[in-house]
Write a structure and sequence with these properties.
This protein has 237 residues and is α/β, with parallel strands linked by helices. The chain has one domain (15-236): Ribonuclease Z/Hydroxyacylglutathione hydrolase-like (Metallo-beta-lactamase, Chain A, 4-Layer Sandwich), CATH 3.60.15. The chain is built from 5 helices and 12 strands. The strands form 3 sheets. Strands 5-6-7-8-10 form a 5-stranded mixed sheet, with no helix packed on it. α4 (153-168) packs antiparallel against α5 (207-220). Bound molecules: zinc ion. Zinc ion binds next to α2.
Length: 237
């Protein structure tokens, strides 16, 4: 799902993955919009169609920045909903990461297995989620068609290497992040705050794009500089 641009220029993407016993919502939007009602109706429709017993909705975040957690209050203290706090300590405890560089952790939604990786660098609580059913890899603000803001360069370099390593032995149908800031014209992004993006790039990135990110990061050897690539820009802060 995507939050409409008219409600917030960030227009972030939200992802809902549904298994036979649990569902996982990744992110709650940038605020100023009802997120809970559409999620509730999607789950109700799913239960009706599949006769299912999706008993628990886990609400987690791609990372803890404000444009991805603003709708959290809509899910707090509701029966059947487990809201994972935004901070990295809570995220690590919930998914069972042992350290920043720990391996992927399996997360079972019931007949739908996910692999969750800690990928700090953009933000300490950043995670990636791989859906074995669709071979889609969700990368949050760490990797999307736009400005990849890097706060912790060492952690970011380790995380991109981890993503490349993780995908080496797996199919990847698409890599999906949480924004589009890029135009279809290569090396071109829309300025911060742009609402109307008529020539917007597509959302999907590929494993080849990920390898381009990782190899560019490697050549920087820890000294990050703002670097434009055809479909994204590495942007140290
Ligand atoms: Zn964001």
């Amino acid at each position: 799902m995507r939050q409409p641009a008219c409600t917030n220029y960030e227009k972030p993407f939200l992802y809902l993955l549904i298994g036979s016993t649990r569902a996982l919502l990744i992110d709650t939007g940038a605020g100023g919009i009802d997120v809970a009602a559409p999620i509730d109706s999607l789950l109700t429709a799913w239960r009706a169609k599949h006769g299912g017993a999706v008993r628990t909705l886990v609400v987690a975040h791609s990372h803890g920045h404000g444009d991805h957690i603003a709708g959290d209050a809509q899910f707090r203290d509701r029966a059947g909903i487990m809201l994972v706090p935004r901070d990295s300590a809570a995220v690590y405890a919930f998914f069972g990461f042992r350290a920043q560089r720990s391996d992927a952790v399996a997360f079972d939604l019931g007949d739908r297995m996910l692999d969750v990786l800690a990928i700090p660098g953009h933000e300490p609580a950043s995670i990636a989620v791989y859906d074995r059913k669709t071979a889609v890899l969700l990368t949050g603000d760490t990797f999307y068609p736009g400005r990849l803001y890097v706060r912790d360069t060492a952690a970011f370099a380790a995380s991109t290497a981890r993503l490349v390593g993780f995908t080496r032995s797996r199919q990847v149908s698409a890599i999906l992040g949480t924004h589009i800031e890029q135009a279809r014209t290569p090396f071109t992004d829309y300025p911060v705050g742009t609402v109307d993006q008529p020539d917007e790039d597509r959302l999907e990135l590929s494993r080849a794009d990920l390898i381009m990110l990782d190899s560019t990061v490697r050549t920087m050897r820890g000294r990050f500089t703002r670097t434009r690539l055809p479909r994204f820009t590495i942007w140290p802060r």
